[in-house]
Design a protein that fits this description.
Layout lengths: L2 H20 L3 H5 L7 E6 L6 H5 L6 E6 L9 H13 L4 E7 L3 H6 L8 H14 L1 H6 L3 H21 L2 H9 L3 E8 L4 E4 L19
Parallel strand pairs: 1-2, 1-3, 3-4
Antiparallel strand pairs: 4-5
Bound molecules: cobalt (II) ion.
Length: 210
């Protein structure tokens, strides 16, 4: 093991000590079950860890992360996480969190060939194409990228709403979808005010008779 890798294990031992100093039964309690209230779908970017930026403890947020926080209907990983969080853990809120300075969104705005990643970024290019008029009115490229970050989150919240998992949860109880942006320039999370709580938020063709 090189020094930098060992650093992680050293950090872990220190963290365990700190936890036990606060509550000697901490890990005993943690090991019995989890009852998170939130599912967080965020970017894999190392600067946006869900618990840190929301000042929450382990056990509060169930997390799925991928490049540029996209919700793709054929992504078995995402669908499994969503199903487990909603149907089994009964989370009350599903949050899509994007962030400014997102490498994935920035890459999707270019015509450069990123090899295999092109496939993953395709859905963000679709969002761009859909909002091309609005986006290309913004001459400052950094501001245009920021807007695409926001539009991407809005599109992914819609994609969540189109899933059977979310629509069944709406029929059988309450579930709220939210879109957030993490601003890594200030550390602040901003709500995009796109809360969805029922099928009326999406085009009728996507509504299932459940
Ligand atoms: Co990102």
């Amino acid at each position: 093991m090189d020094g930098s890798y060992k650093h992680l294990l050293k950090g872990n031992r220190e963290w365990v000590k700190e936890r036990l100093a606060m509550d000697k039964h901490y890990f005993k309690k943690q090991s019995t079950s989890q009852q998170p209230e939130y599912l967080w779908i965020g970017c894999s970017d190392s600067r946006v860890p869900a618990n840190n930026v929301t000042k929450t403890q382990p056990g509060v947020i169930f997390v799925h992360r991928n490049i540029a926080n996209v919700v793709i209907q054929t992504d078995l990983n995402l669908l499994s996480v969503l199903y487990y969080a909603v149907d089994i853990l009964h989370v009350r809120h599903v949050i899509v969190c994007g962030h400014y300075e997102c490498g994935g969104v920035s890459a999707a705005m270019q015509n450069e060939d990123f090899g295999f990643v092109n496939n993953w970024l395709r859905s963000i290019k679709e969002v761009y194409a859909q909002h091309k008029t609005e986006l290309e009115k913004i001459k400052n490229l950094k501001k245009r990228e920021d807007r695409l970050v926001e539009l991407n989150v809005l599109a992914q919240v819609h994609n969540l709403a189109k899933t059977r998992i979310v629509q069944r949860a709406w029929k059988n109880g309450s579930l709220q979808l939210h879109g957030l942006i993490y601003d890594c320039r200030t550390g602040k999370l901003n709500d995009l005010n796109c809360k969805m709580t029922n099928q009326t938020h999406i085009e009728s063709i996507f509504r299932y008779n459940l």
